[in-house]
Amino acid sequence: APSPEGDGAAVAVEPCPVLRVECIICYSSYDLGVRLPRRLYCGHTFCQACLKRLDAVTNEQRWIPCPQCRQNTPTPRGGVTMLDLDLATFLAVKADREQPRVAGRSPPALPAKGSCKEQAVTEQPAGLCPEPVPPALFPRRGCCRLCLCCGVTAALES
């Protein structure tokens, strides 16, 4: 049987699931305010407002139990607002807010992160970095060639 990788045959690509832009607890859309998408240690994402309500004390420790898998996430010292943002969802919400709304059109469905079986990106898209950025140089202090600052600068210049 011929190899599907090397003969150039078309490979069926399964459709991408849509990135969820609403909290599955309250069914409210994520936003850039009180409903920021926060990720628990288990990887599940919920809005910040719902996670604040789930925050509970057990055995003198504050925990947030995941409503999907029941894994406990310790509440950070600063509270729920210190949990990591789900960056893919946050950026999708931010991009949606920055696009001007067209009357009668719903926002496009976004593919879920890491779930599509597509070709890997092997090079940077054109136009992201129009000019090469020169390497950063430390200010030269002229004091000696033995200190870290001058040594690094001398190495960069040569």
Protein architecture, described:
This protein is an alpha+beta fold. It has a domain at 16-109: Zinc/RING finger domain, C3HC4 (zinc finger) (Herpes Virus-1, 2-Layer Sandwich). Helices cover 18% and strands 11% of the residues. Strands 3-4-5 form a 3-stranded antiparallel sheet, covered by helices on one side. Strands 1-2 form a two-stranded antiparallel sheet. A hairpin with a 2-residue loop joins strand 3 and strand 4 (61-65). The protein is globular. The N and C termini lie far apart (57 Å).
In a nutshell, what does this entry contain?
This protein is of the alpha+beta class and about 160 residues long.
Topology of helices and strands:
Layout: E1 37-39, E2 45-47, H1 48-54, E3 56-58, E4 61-65, E5 72-74, H2 87-98, H3 148-157
GO molecular function: zinc ion binding
Protein name: Ring finger protein 224
InterPro entries: RING_finger_domain (IPR053122), Znf-RING_euk (IPR027370), Znf_RING (IPR001841), Znf_RING/FYVE/PHD (IPR013083), Znf_RING_CS (IPR017907)
